[in-house]
Amino acid sequence: MNLFNSLITKRLAATVSASLVIAIGFAAGVWQLNRASTKIALAANLQARQQMPILNASNGSWTLEEVSERRMIARGQYIPEAAIWLDNRPKPIPAGGGANAAQAGFYLMMPLSLEGRQTVVWVNRGWAPRNNDDRALLPPVKTPSGAVSVEGIAFAHPGRVYELGKASEAIDISKPRIEQNFDLAEEAKLHGWSQSPFILREVETGLEDGLLREWPPLTNGVDRHYAYAFQWFALAFCGFLFWLITGLRQYRRRDVVNGDQA
To answer: Phi and psi (nearest 5°) for 152?
Structure first.
């Protein structure tokens, strides 16, 4: 019996099973590498756009395409009574890691009425920890009462989390509220005001207002993707080795039984 027949023809079930394991492991490994490459490319693009001149929110009606991932300064006055606290947001962990990586809290979204314009721009002012004893108790945060200048990065939204349907009760827009996700278009309808089609994620300025703004770089998690890719490739290789070694053993046993070896 030749080696080809012993490894493949006589072991069709084992060959098909091994092929599936190898194909799945290889495909998943390549997918993880692609994910890492995508994050690196996005981070490089974001870095390049942030090196461009700083925009001014009051200089015209900016579109999302014009300002996306660009630095921008907005001057105006906060409207704290319309603030939205986005729940279930993990604590931002800057490059290099840190403690309490799994701590949950809020992103504070607050509208800023632009100076000299009848327009509002929403600002992601930062992250604050949640009270574990009373989920409805909002963190103490300082909000300037007068005109302020806010520098941030323009994004389409502050990020989304999984949500099990929308609440059915009426929304009271006259006081701060806790939400799972943020919808720019919905907020414009609720308040009836003109607003920019983007949000500003405020950068760290050293302001002690009770909020954390050490935003993690987009390349966070790249090492994890590489580790996952290695595991999937290792699984594919182990599947091939298991198929090959068990086939060779069966081949040698058949040779011994048939008297082909001493």
So the answer is: -160, -175
Q: What angle do CA 121, 125, 126 make, to 5 degrees?
A: 145
pLDDT exceeds 90 at position 231: yes
User: In angstroms, rounded to a whole number, what is the distance separating the alpha carbons of residues 50 and 164?
Assistant: 35
Instruction: Please give the Cα distance from 53 to 106 (Å, whole number).
Output: 31
Angle at 204 between CA 57 and CA 201, to 5 degrees: 45
Task: Compute the average pLDDT of residues 109-138.
Answer: 91
The single-letter code of the amino acid at 203 is V
Q: What is the token pair recorded at 65?
A: 């395409």
**Given the structure tokens 């604590």, which residue do they identify?**
91
Task: Tell me the pLDDT tens digit for each residue of 174-222.
Answer: 788 999 999 999 999 999 999 999 999 999 877 889 899 988 776 767 8
Q: Please state, in angstroms and as integers, the Cα–Cα distance from residue 254 to each residue in 9, 83, 139, 249, 257, following that order.
A: 14, 77, 74, 9, 5
* CB atoms closer than 10 angstroms to residue 203: 15
Instruction: State pTM to two decimals.
Output: 0.72
**What is the three-class DSSP state of 203?**
coil
Compute the C-alpha angle 50/108/43, nearest 5°: 25
Tell me the C-alpha distance between 23 and 39, whole Å.
Answer: 24
The beta strands (E) that lie in 8-70 are given as 55-56
Closest CA to 241 of 18, 38, 1: 18
How confident is the model at residue 103, as a pLDDT? 79
Q: For the chain, what percentages of helix, strand and coil (3-state, to nearest 5) are there?
A: 35, 20, 40
Where residue 95 falls among pLDDT bands split at 50, 70, 90?
Answer: low
215, 94 in Cβ contact below 8 A? yes
pLDDT above 90 covers what percent of the chain?
Answer: 50
